[in-house]
Structure prediction request, 50 residues.
Amino acid sequence: MPLEIIVPVLMSCAVMWWVGRGMSWTLRLTVIAITLAIVAIVLFVERGLT
Prediction:
């Protein structure tokens, strides 16, 4: 995997851990699902347009 993919994923995990400390598990999973959906949409549009 290229470094340009690994670094943002690790940074996102660190930020989610830091911000999510006070969140319930349900809210945390909801935020993760929404974030992954946004990433998937961006990747789909980016690869579809090139």
Q: What stands out?
A: The helical segments are 3-19, 25-49. The chain has a mean pLDDT of 79. The longest helix spans residues 25-49. The CA atoms of residues 41 and 47 lie 10 Å apart.
